[in-house]
């Protein structure tokens, strides 16, 4: 079983071939597009192990299955006795990617 650790969107993910992954929105990628993750920090193919910061010449590829927004996070600011109340919401965009090859 091959797996790798990739870095995208400022975060690190442990990925396996054929598994799904939710990552930060990738600029320029649309649903159905092939994406390449060049920053592979660790790669184990079962017979060999590569470690680097990042490794060179060993990209991980995937297909974008869906793009959407995450659940809403609500932030409330309140000060007592002064009628001060602020409420803000934020929905982080994400992409669901299926890992094709390691």
Describe the structure.
The protein has 102 residues and is mostly beta strands. It is built from no helices and ten strands. The chain has a four-stranded antiparallel beta sheet with strand order 2-1-5-6, with no helix packed on it. A four-stranded antiparallel beta sheet has the order 3-10-7-4, with no helix packed on it. A two-stranded antiparallel sheet has the order 8-9. It is 0% helix and 61% strand. A hairpin with a 4-residue loop joins strand 5 and strand 6. It has one domain.
In short:
This protein has no helices and ten strands. With 102 residues, the chain is mostly beta strands.
Could you outline the blueprint of secondary structure elements for this entry?
Layout: E1 3-8, E2 11-16, E3 20-24, E4 34-37, E5 40-44, E6 49-51, E7 60-69, E8 73-79, E9 84-90, E10 93-101
Antiparallel strand pairs: 1-2, 1-5, 3-10, 4-7, 5-6, 7-10, 8-9
